[in-house]
Design a protein that fits this description.
456 residues; Immunoglobulin-like; alpha+beta; 2 domains; disordered C terminus; 8 helices; 20 strands
């Protein structure tokens, strides 16, 4: 059965519109942050050529990044940050793994009309002529599951036109896969320019391109006039379909960071001090072998778990040699290497001689020093992550300080009261007159006086 001339005309018209209008896939991993990708029809048919993408976010973000690849290592990354009150810088970079990506001088990108800062929104409309293949990988423009990564950092503006500006670690990151067949279509030289977006601006034509030499017409800084476009027409069809979340970021990096902070805070603020005080609060020959030692071993295991999360986070952001991870590794490693051993040596000495050995002093004071160091490092951890940034609320820092102060006072008062009680020889013996291990560790009474009433 033949098709009517009307249906054929309709099909041809639809095809022609599809060829002219851009087909754009968008996704928004966080409030206010939007990414958009377009593969022109000509690029899709040839398997090479130009790719368009857009990065948009409120100016309250310090930087926003979009990258091609499933992870940072080998990724083709593009980072947007403010160059001034009205201009942005787009910095093409090469992913190096768990380190800050370096500027990529081989990138061929151009900033298009609509790029700039307007109404407190940063926008980068980008033409990329080096996004099909790069030194670390390549992209199949017909892929239904193309890998992309994203990241952002909140904070004060970078205010730099340098494409090699030093950037601080991200607050959050994630990954998505994009069905590029849903982003294919159009022959526009700028599929984003006439879309009505709050904060989009129209460029006055003074747009720089990147050929890698960093000079004028050879950098990635777009200079815009700052005039806003309020056009309601659009040259593209926008869709959010075809995007699959591979790593939501919040359920990954931020949740691991939160878990790390909670575990280590509980360990050093509550568990270690509480375990240390059990031998002062519970007067029994069985306190140390049956309460103190098992409790502290459990706490040490929790510290190791928290340390593991911390190490994975530090490796992710390339900061394993920073002050916070180094202090944490040193503290927990010393706890593992020395505290159980010194405790066992003192316990064996007590069972043999009924006295306090040098290992008792070492166990006690090393434990106190490492406990205080761990608490201090917790505070440094808040600074390291950025107080007030997402995942590190100021209220949490205040609560940490209050609990640390309260536990410190309670710990010192308990030690003072315990020392007062132990000054009397009558308070250092069990019902049959023998010293408990707790008392033997603290008593100033010579061991030869710690005998039973029958003189044995």
């Amino acid at each position: 059965m033949g098709r009517s001339p009307y249906s054929i005309l309709t099909a041809l018209l639809a095809a022609s519109v599809y060829m002219v209008l851009g087909q754009v896939v968008t996704f928004s991993p966080s409030t206010g942050i939007n990414y958009a990708i377009n593969i022109p029809s000509d690029t899709a048919s040839k398997g090479s050529g130009t790719v368009y993408f857009q990065i948009q976010a409120p100016s309250t973000f310090q930087w926003i990044g979009l990258g091609q690849g499933s992870r940072m290592e080998g990724a083709n990354i593009f980072i947007m940050y403010a160059a001034s009150d009205s201009n942005i810088t787009l910095s093409p970079r090469s992913g190096l793994g768990s380190f800050e990506p370096n500027f990529n001088p081989s990138a061929k990108v151009s900033l298009l009309d609509g790029t700039g800062i307007s109404n407190n929104v940063m926008t980068a409309n980008v033409r990329c002529d080096s996004c099909i293949s790069w030194s670390g990988g390549s992209m199949d423009v017909k892929s239904t599951s193309s890998s992309w990564i994203w990241a952002y950092k909140s904070g004060s503006a970078v205010d730099s036109s340098s494409v090699s500006a030093d950037l601080t670690q991200h607050d959050d990151k994630g990954a998505v896969t994009v069905d590029l067949t849903k982003a294919t279509g159009g022959s526009s030289s700028d599929p984003f320019v006439t879309q009505s977006n709050s904060g989009s601006s129209i460029n006055n034509g003074n747009t720089s391109t990147s050929n890698g030499n960093g000079s004028t017409n050879g950098n990635s800084t777009g200079s815009t006039s700052g005039s806003s476009s309020s056009s309601s027409s659009t040259s593209s069809t926008y869709t959010t379909s075809g995007v699959t979340v591979a790593d939501s970021g919040q359920s990954g990096f931020n949740r691991r960071r939160t878990a790390h902070g909670l575990i280590m805070a509980f360990v050093f603020l509550i568990l270690f001090p509480g375990g240390a005080l059990t031998r002062h609060l519970i007067r029994s020959p069985k306190t140390i072998p049956y309460i103190h030692a098992p409790f502290q071993l459990f706490t040490l295991a929790a510290a190791v778990a928290g340390l593991g999360l911390g190490v994975s986070l530090a490796l992710d952001i390339g900061e394993i040699y920073a002050y916070h991870p180094v202090i944490g590794l040193t503290t927990v490693s010393a706890l593992i290497a020395f505290q159980p051993l010194l405790g066992v040596l003192q316990h064996l000495n007590y069972r043999k001689n009924g006295t306090k050995s040098p290992s008792a002093y070492a166990h006690r004071w090393l434990g106190r020093i490492l406990m205080v160091l761990g608490i201090i490092n917790g505070g440094l951890g808040f600074m390291f992550s950025g107080i007030g940034t997402p995942g590190v609320p100021t209220a949490a820092v205040i609560a940490y300080g209050v609990i640390a102060g309260f536990m410190g006072i309670a710990y010192i008062l308990t030690l003072l009261l315990s020392a007062t009680r132990l000054k009397s020889p009558l308070n250092t013996s069990t019902p049959n007159g023998c010293l408990t291990e707790n008392a033997a560790e603290h008593s100033l009474v010579p061991a030869e006086r710690s005998i039973s009433k029958d003189g044995k």
